[in-house]
């Protein structure tokens, strides 16, 4: 069998029987916001199995009639998608476009559609921002640590997480420890330490909000100033700043400003408004206190000699609720003025001093008091001129009185009979003629400096011998210028009187103690003693006493012979002596002359 072959070229004419087909079922593009306009976003690709014009494609974007915000265009021939206007992620972060593809042959028309999804990638083109540039926040000073003060809320227009994620930070404009903390994520401002308005009344904080863009150089921030005003609560008591001691002269007039009381309260407003009150120590209403100004004035005349100091308990009270207070003891010293007259402790002084003492003998110390104080109370003493004042000297400072001469109690020219000396004294203030006087009665005490003196240097007396026993024959008298026992005289006899005489020790009378007999003893000589009665070293004087015994006819004559015998012769003549008779009489004189006679 024979065969032959040849090549036959059959051209099949195309019929527009295939629809265009996109290479993908959908398209997805990502692009950064704010790209350069007219830049190619991406290319949509489709194929048409037909050939020729039947396979030529045209690309179109489906755009609604009322959509004026068209951001994209498509090249109808190439399918390249172009950006026609700027993108803003914050305005539209996603676009969903419908691309229509048609071939050129409209008989019959063949087309197809595909959805194009475009995500706009966020760029960090927005800074965080606060609603205000400056805010004022008030917080009470007694809030506990951890108290929420404020929540800052900054916004960021960026859309992606990190570009719009805000982190907060805090700075304090002034030096010192920041008592606040801010949460970096939540922006909550809380107290980190106790607050004290009296130490820090306010703070200026700079609060910053920064986004967290990945690239540190791209990060943006905003800040605001926050003035934190620490609101006062009444947590401070008033504190006195004025001195607790004040001085005022006693002669000031009523209404004189004695002191200004000042108390400070670091709280503010009514919490720091202080009023003043006297709690105690002003019972006699000597002072009045202005409760607003704290001015303390005298309400009555002062007298240091009655009360030299006042202790006022004053209170400073604030106007808070509840009110707080403080107290202070204010001591007011009343200063002396020379307004008092010296006064002797006694108006009459009585004392005694022994005579015969050397000059300079202490007599007495007088004392006057002056209720004034300090130099105003210094006194000087002096003796005023008067009888006998020259015998004394007064110490002008101490008031001690001493003698300037030896005193003699028995000297009548200087002292009275009673031995009293009246001295006028005065006490005067230093530098002042203001003074007072007192009287001193000085008794000069006796010293036993005199012997008793008899009236005569010798006593002679004659007495009859027939005196009865106990008869007074002589009164002795001795005087003693001394006083008291020193001048009281006692009498005694010191020689033997043979029991014939005795003396009365008090009166000095000498009496007979037995019958006298001249014929036995015709004369007595003895001494009488006058002694003073001093208990210490008594003094005495003696005097001679002569007592003559005068005769009385108390004795009969006595014959010397009895009987007498005589022998007379018968032849004895007349007148012749026949015997001599003898007789004696012991009496004296005529009492003893014997006359004879015959009975």
UniProtKB/TrEMBL annotation:
Gene3D superfamilies associated with the record: Cadherins
Superkingdom of source: Eukaryota
GO MF assignments: beta-catenin binding; cadherin binding; calcium ion binding
GO cellular component entries: catenin complex
SUPFAM superfamilies: Cadherin-like (SSF49313)
Subcellular location as annotated: Membrane
Cited Pfam families: Cadherin (PF00028)
Keywords: Calcium, Cell adhesion, Glycoprotein, Membrane, Repeat, Transmembrane, Transmembrane helix
Annotated GO biological process: cell migration; heart morphogenesis; homophilic cell adhesion via plasma membrane adhesion molecules; tissue morphogenesis
Domain Cadherin, chain residue ranges per copy: 23-130, 139-240, 248-344, 345-454, 455-559
UniProt signal peptide: none
Protein name: Protocadherin-23
Organism of provenance: Pygoscelis adeliae
Species classification: Eukaryota, Metazoa, Chordata, Craniata, Vertebrata
